[in-house]
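ARCHIVE CARD
SHELF: 3
SLOT: left
DATA:
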Amino acid sequence: MKSFYKTGLRIGLISYRSNPHCGGQGVYIRHLSHALSDLGHQVEVIAGPPDPLLNAGVNLTMLDTLDLYNPENLFRTPRIDELKDPVNLIEWLDISAMGYPEPMTFGMRVKRYMKGRTKRYDILHDNQSLSYGVLSLTRDLPVTATIHHPITVDRRLALKATRSFYKKLQVLRWYSFIGMQKRVARRLSSIITVSDSSKTDIAKEFKIPESRLKTVPNGIDLDNFFPLDHVKKEPGRLIVTNSADMPLKGLYHLLYALKGVLTHKEVSLTVIGIPKKNGGIENLVKKLDLGRHINFTGRIDHQRFVLEYAKAQIAVVPSMYEGFGLPVGEAMACRVPVISTTGGALPEVAGDAAKLVPPGDAKALEKAIIELLDDEKQRENLACRGYERVKREFTWEKCAMRTVQVYREVIDDYHGL
């Protein structure tokens, strides 16, 4: 009998960096695991530090690592006894040579943990580590993976953002794990991705047939992102949520747009995030003399996040590329009108409920901001359409149900059913 007719599945969700504050992958693990559990499946998240935030009913197994990216003790020197573990030694040597070994070494740790445990699971779901260690487990049980977007895009934009030959070499060294991820992805029978745009780009960049890529859009956390109708909008206030110094996120272009807008009207920009000290964003803010017009919030909780959205007249998503675009959906869930670029999958999330501009075009961003600030009726129209769109199209329950359909196909294919 096909697995489709089996009730609850035993699911191992594997994710090397799973805290929501680390980015969209952590958000994905938290809400997908919760939604799968609510559907009656048994879910275990197998993760590395920093610890993921999980809901009740989801089991967590933390794998010991050197945790060399801990901001409170960044790139610490490991103790001698720690380096007796060969995986730790490989990790430390690679980091010392300016590499990023976490996807590979996390896979080694998963393989070690799974020894003698594979019968606990009906399927393993890898959250974009795409490591040799995880691939080796396909001999023992069904494995699928999510690729949120091709990381080759990040590498290409990072190379384009610097003129320094030395920094280009650093970028290439950092992204040296991409070769492994491509090879592993090509060996998996079925891969989940979060948008049709990502599906097309992954197929092209990783040389994978599109027929093996399954589009399952993310959900939006409607329990934590919602309108606060009692909060008064602050005139001219813009908001952006941003990993500030990543070229991929496009904040540089928004800063130039902001400078242009300020020649027409008084505005302010709230950035949910914090710039790298003496980094490109901090230096550009000084160069453009924008300091008094910008507030960097740093890391904030959901209550403050929603409040910041409620105060804003417009949310701006200036990304050069997104595999999905959680910031668009989260702003819409708070009933805030959105200006977004057309980078990657952003138009799929925005639909007809946002004002769209080309990525990397500061002048187009400037024009769109001025037009929307001057048009209250359009702001209200976009806010309402966006809110209804998110509630209708992007729930985590729907995401989990579609994910389970992929699981069952992978399981049936593995067992030859």
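SLOT: right
DATA:
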Amino acid sequence: MTPLGRREFLKSSTLGMMAASFDAGRKGPVYPDSNETSGKAIRFGLGLASYTLREFNIEQTIDMTKRLALGKIILKSMHLPLESPEADVAAAAQKVRAAGLDLYGCGVVYMTNEAEVEQGFRYARAAGLRMIIGVPNPELLGLVEKKVKEFDIALAIHNHGPEDKLYPTPASAYERITKLDSRVGLCIDIGHTMRAGVDPSEAAQRCAGRLLDFHVKDVTSAAKEGDTIEMGRGVIDIPKFVRTIIKLGFPGTLAFEFEKDGSDPLPGLAESVGYLRGVLAAL
């Protein structure tokens, strides 16, 4: 297929996938959560990082996630308050699961002292989560490893790009955790990775032994000034990234984190979901 033909195919696929995604909210999911291209060894599923819907309540967040046929979700504290009593956390988590979503993680959770580490793990346990997407201060990583073993809950360190003084790139976190329990790993944010001037595909390959989760998005430039944009319109080579993680056998979740248009994110989010599904269909 020529480059032009491939682009046109992806464009038409995206439009079709967008329409199907919205239709899923009325007629039930039309795309499985994993193995989205028949016959290909795809082990990951698609989900949502709820920060995308930060201006909406939990009921609206559940509804929009289901409309896009995304079966997995990570909740940020505005949807599952970190400071709530454990019984309230458990009840809120049950509401999400009763709606048919796999609530597998929370975050991003910041951990700047020992009390916040303890709070984060107790919160995750109360919600029945398998993973915390977190930013623990480096000096707390030993304690984090201890809690990972105690609670049997993984912690995935999230990179935040050039402004992040702790973990600007995946490699800056990876080099600190290579000797820790394998459940201490990475949530690579491919947008912030690109903003730090690092190809997300290369970052995934370099950190392959510690990949627990991905936040997926596109950005306008490979620089600090880069902003979130609808997937496929930015500078990240999404097909290359997808091929890379398929080759690596990544078994987790690609969680969409669409930070643009906070008060009306659904059109851009749907376009991004449709684009990625189009890429998967074109492989």
